[in-house]
Amino acid sequence: MTADPNRKNLRSPPPIPPADIDAAEAADQPAPATLSGTMMTAITAPHQRPANTSELPTVAMSPASVLPTAPPALPPNQRTLVTRVPPPGAGPAGATLITRAPGGAKTVVTDLNVGGTRPPTSEGSHTGEVWGDFEIRDQLGKGGMGSVYHGRQVSLDRLVAIKVLPPALSANESFRSRFGLEAKAVAQISSPHVVQVYAAGVHQGNHFFAMEYVEGHDLARKLQNGFRPTYRQSLELVLQAARGLQAAGEHGIIHRDIKPGNMMVTPKGLLKLMDFGLVKLAASPEASVTMAGTVMGTVNYFSPEQGRGEVCDQRTDLYALGVVFYQLLTGTLPFRGADATSVIYQHIHQQPRSPKEIDPNIPEDYQAVVLKCMQKRPEARYQNASALVADLEALIDGQSPLTAYLDPEALRQGATMLKTTEFRLERQRRGLLVGGLLCVLAAAAGGGLWWTYGREPASAAVVIATPERTQPAVTLPPATRDPAFERASALLTAGGFDEARLLVDQARTAKPDDAAWQQLERDLDRAHGAQLLVQARQAQAAGDWPRAAQAGAAAAKRLGDLPELVALRAEAVDRQAQAQALAKGVAEAQALLADGKADAAERRLDQLTKEHPSSAEVAELLRTLRSQREAGAARSRGAADSLARGEDAFARRDYDGALQLFANARALDPDNAAAKTGIAKVEDAKAAASALRERFQRALAARDLAAADTALRELRTAWPEGKQVSVCEQELASSRLVEDEKARRAADAESKVGGQAKTVLALINDPQATIPAMEHALSAFLANAGADRPEKALLETRIEDHRQLVAVTQRLAGLDQAVRGKDAAGVRAMVADNDFAAALVELSALPGLVFESRIDDFVRDGRSGQLRVSLRHALALFPERVLAYRYAVRQDAGGWVIAKAELVK
Q1: Taking all residues of the chain, what is their mean pLDDT, rounded to a whole number?
Q2: 247: which residues sit within 8 A by CB, 6+ positions away?
Q3: Who's near 177: CB < 8 A, 6+ residues apart?
Q4: Measured between alpha carbons, how far apart are the two ends of the chain, in Å?
Q5: Does the pLDDT at position 455 exceed 70?
Q6: Is 895 in contact with 879 (CB distance < 8 Å)?
Q7: Where are the beta strands (DSSP E) in 548-635?
Q8: What is the spatial distance between Cα 683 and Cα 751, in angstroms, rounded to a whole number?
Q9: Cβ(785)–Cβ(753) under 8 Å?
């Protein structure tokens, strides 16, 4: 009876027990921390994901902390796992397993490093904020590498999930690198089974990237809520995850934290891998941002090499996926323990229970795939996700897996590992063979020699017309016995016919008339002839006609032309002739095949089939020929189809698809010229696209975003289906965000400097300010903003204007004093306008003179300028009045003088 792959045992599998975690006392830890994925983030769940107690935490652990021997076995209720949250900057959070003895004493068993630096509690929510093209809504989840928000991309009006790196981690170059690597890595993958990344950027110091929003729940939450998939559902989920890993593997991307919590399942059953926070690029070791001396991942799904802190490749992900398959089929994890160390130890050193031991109804082929994935040595597992996908697709089609039963050790010697049932039958067959051989040997040992003189061999029924004898025909008297005769008789009895024949021939030559030797010769002929007749019959039964003819001819020499021998020899001759004719015909057919004349070869083989209907060789050769011809026709049809599809893909500028199709056509038909031409033109087109990509990169490196945008548009036109286009778009968007941020900062800085310049100018315009104060303010401004500031010349000019205004004011005060003092020489020294000077001298002589000048405006142009002056004067006979004058002034060696004075009406 075979198990139905779509139906599970009605008995529910045992539930996944939570890790045995006791609450820490206040003296050990202020507050115990949950063990739900501390390093990974719950992406795109509609609600914040609760702690998954079926999984021990994602850990970043020193390889030295993995115990080389089995950890001490302690009762679970005596163990307490507590965490330590250090102050910011003091290092990563810790997890310590404390053992409590009956007397209350504590013993630290191991000290684990769980997760990265915990985000500070002061981090606020970004709900309601708008970051460029993205509106941030409610928070979906939060983990060690960031928070995830539900959001909307405004320009495309679509829902997104936005992952934000905490501010405390943004300041850490390692975390920024890890965060950026996750976004770039996932952006390269194009698969329906991997969450897509849309954009990445920085907003006010917050590093983020926006990705596809997926409705549904992660697989860990579904299992926690009671979801128990059938065998078929388990297979379909794992196949989707494997296809996601296959797409990641095409870009050399290793996830390193495959687990149910990082698999989103939509209501329609579509599975998507997410949270590439521990991503590593296999082709670029420097691209991995794993901290030196740490092991990253989730311990329940650790591969042995992860536990040992060794280098990981995609086979690590396949091991973890095998653990997930195991969990889905059996309802339990292969290894469980009260602490991370014990679980890691089991992954490294212990074999899991076979799934069929837990649930006998699990199909054996499913179990084979699980155990193939979970081999301890990476070289014994599937070597890449494509091989695993091939086996899973075979199971989907109801077929046996292609490689799951291969034994890697025997494989290197050209052998395979048999399935259980076939292996049992093989052992039975071998047992029968060995048993039969032992029986033959035992019979030979117990029954004496196979041939005795005068008797027929036990394996054949040979009838010879001669009386049976147990003694030689002639018995010599003891005195006259011949030692040679005794020797020949003994050899005849023992079956040593050839040596006996030599003795008989020698004796018959020496004693031709000796009756005893004559009789011994006849007995030797009959016995040896009977043996040769048996050999001829055996060769006849085996179809070995040359041997049958040879043995029959030898028997006829000793037994004469017995009818049976005549018939046997005639049949042997006829069969040999037929064999020769058959061999000749086969050789002719093979020669025709070698010359490429398949039709002629088939006609010759058809003729041979009629002539030799029982020839298995001809039948097999004919079947092979027809199979090859059909395969060739199928290859030709496949090549033509691939060529047509390749041309269509090339017309759509889907160069990757076109290259694959042309390569398929060439593989099917190596001499196909169209396939070679197609490959060449695709390579030319890709080379042109690569040149555009290089031009884009150069422009981006030079921060020439306009040139980069032009190159990107040309690349999008040349290769719209190329994966490089989306990568370039992301890079350009990121560069624009950076440039915008730089421009904003420059504008802020410029605004700040402009404000400082205005402050200095306000001081210069202050009538109460002194020249030294103005000069000090200007020096301070230039020291802070730079000596090449454009405001420098203006400010220096305004200070000089102020200085010269003071000088002019002093000169006019001197002029006022000279006029009031009737100092005609002093007036003429300061007034070059002779008419105005004469008027002032004449005015100074009048009684009751009041004369006072006030500068209303001063405009200077180097050593000349214009003054607007209010002149207050009065005389004894005239009341006081104010006149408005405009002075043209110039600077001479003695100071400012009035070149011309004009009354303003």
Answers
A1: 77
A2: 189, 190, 191, 193, 194
A3: 289
A4: 126
A5: no
A6: no
A7: none
A8: 53
A9: yes
Q: pLDDT, tens digit, for every residue of 152-166?
A: 999 999 999 999 988
Longest dimension (CA), the chain: 205
Strand partners, 852: 872
Q: What is the pTM of this model?
A: 0.39
Sign of CA dihedral 461, 465, 469, 472: negative
Q: Output DSSP code: residue 561.
A: -
User: Residue 91 region, left (φ>0) first, then alpha (ψ -120 to 50), else beta?
Assistant: left
In eight-state DSSP terms, residue 353 is: P
Where are any strands of DSSP class E within 167-314? 197-203, 206-212, 217-218, 253-254, 263-265, 271-273, 280-281, 295-298
Of 515, 521, 575, residue with least CA distance to 547: 575
Nearest to 318 by CA among 409, 411, 256: 256
Q: Write the CB contacts of 44 (distance below 8 Å, at least 6 apart in sequence).
A: 140, 148, 161, 195, 211, 212, 213, 214, 264, 274
Residue 743 has pLDDT above 60, yes or no: yes
Per-position DSSP letters for 174-200, written without gaps between them: HHHHHHHHHHHHHHH---TTB--EEEE
Check if the beta carbon of residue 795 is closer than 8 Å to that of residue 824. no
Q: How far is Cα 60 from Cα 117, in angstroms, rounded to an integer?
A: 11
Residue, of 77 and 710, whose pLDDT is higher: 710
pLDDT at 106 over 60: no
**How many angstroms separate the Cα of 116 from the Cα of each of 59, 65, 294, 395?**
9, 17, 11, 40
Spatial contact of 36 and 255, defined as CB atoms under 8 Å apart: no
Residue 852 has pLDDT above 60, yes or no: yes
16-30, 148-162, 223-237, 884-898: least confident range: 16-30
Q: Which two tokens stand for residue 499?
A: 């040596």
Tokens of 88: 């910011």
Question: What pLDDT does 39 receive?
Answer: 33
To the nearest 10°, report the CA torsion of 749, 755, 761, 762. -160
Burial level of 610, CB count in 10 A (0-12/13-18/19+)? exposed
Q: What is the pLDDT of residues 352-410, one digit of tens each?
A: 999 999 999 999 999 999 999 999 999 999 999 999 999 999 999 999 897 888 754 43
Pairing of strands 197-203, 253-254: unpaired
Q: Of the ranges 124-133, 223-232, 421-430, which one carries the lowest mean pLDDT score?
A: 421-430
| 680 pLDDT more than 60 | yes
**pLDDT value at residue 439:** 33
Q: Give 67-120 as a DSSP string.
A: -SSPPP---GGGEEEEEE-PPTTS---EEEEEEE-TTS-EEEEEEEE-SSSPPP
Report d(CA 874, CA 600) in Å as an integer. 142
The label of the residue with tokens 């040769």 reads 532
Q: What is the pLDDT of residue 281?
A: 53
Q: How far apart (Å, rounded) are the C-alpha atoms in residues 505 and 886? A: 166
The predicted-structure confidence for 66-85, as pLDDT tens digits, reads as follows: 333 344 443 433 333 333 33
Query: How far apart are alpha carbons 508 and 525 in whole angstroms?
Result: 14
- State mean pLDDT over 809-815: 93
Distances (CA, A) of 786 to 218, 747, 778, 796: 57, 16, 11, 14
Q: Which of 82, 92, 96, 148 shows the shortest CA–CA distance to 115?
A: 92
Mean pLDDT of the region 731-752: 88
